[in-house]
Amino acid sequence: MAPEQVKVEYVTKEYLKKQNENSFIQYLVTKILDGSVIVLEGGLNPVAQARLLMEVLNYINSRFFGIDMRTIDNFSKKNKITVIYPKSRDMDLRVQESAGRFSLIIHVDSFR
Amino acid sequence: MGLLQKLFGRTESISVRIGIFGEVGAGKTTLVNYITRNYIGVEVGKVTGIPHETREIKEIENVLIRHDGKELNITIVDTPGLATYIDYREFMKYGLSEEEAIERAKEATKGVVEALKEFEKVDVAIIVVDSTKLPFNQINAMLIGNLEIRKIPFIIAANKIDRDDAKPDVIKEIFQNKPVVPISALTGENVDKLIEEIAKRMR
Q1: Chain A contact set for B145 (CB, 8 A)
Q2: B11-201 architecture in CATH?
Q3: Nearest CA of chain B to the CA of A4: how many Å?
Q4: Of these four, A41, A65, B140, B189, which has the most CB atoms within 10 Å of its CB?
Q5: What is the ipTM of this complex?
Q6: Does residue A93 have a pLDDT over 80?
Q7: Does the pTM of the predicted model rise above 0.80?
Q8: Can you tell me the distance from the alpha carbon of B109 to that of A58, in angstroms, rounded to the nearest whole number?
Q9: Other beta carbons within 10 Å of A33
């Protein structure tokens, strides 16, 4: 079944800096498996990205395919955003960027 | 080089573990096959065009390469293609049943995890990218980032230059300040230059 709602969670750079890496990865895994879209100010370092991927891949099945990580950095010269979201039968996400703003278009379909 | 080696003019022998990394379908196994065919006379992996054909780490030991007074005793590690998600339905496009496709996706998943663990074990890495496509993706960024953090030397092999739509210059431009060698793993073009670049990094 497709989720009836999609939660988008925004995490600031300051909050991210204060987090213990292990527990933050576990938090991300929980959110992803819950179907949430996570928007990070800045992003995860490459080692944390690999660790997140290793964790998430343990849960792949016929409905949940893993994650997609997108860096959004064209909308602003100073800011970078990373979007992490679950890839599944039920949900897809597209990013549209233009100067000064970006949009996340989340498509939810239970009949796919 | 040791004193005895200097006195008797013997070549210096260096053992090197080379990891071949990259996205699914970049041509990693084709490259490994080309190298092993030419140096030890065997092919090690199957190339079929179906995504995630390599689902387990393959190690090929004792590939001896002599270059510039050095003898490299190479262990080549062919790793499964990296991906952040695996949709089993992709395999069904190649004629696999749903059951087979799900099984293949499970195996591919394990393979990706094994490939990620291999970052910590290699002395040098070759990142194979498909030069007919733009390499802007999280996989390549994550790969390069992980190797740089661990101070593991790497070379980017801009593969498939035998194809008309290959744009190795674009790859070079995108990865400015990184070593990029345009190659064709299929025909072997420039693979010797790639080996030369590896040898240069082994001191």
Answers
A1: 45-47, 49
A2: 3-Layer(aba) Sandwich (3.40)
A3: 22
A4: A65
A5: 0.84
A6: yes
A7: yes
A8: 8
A9: 14
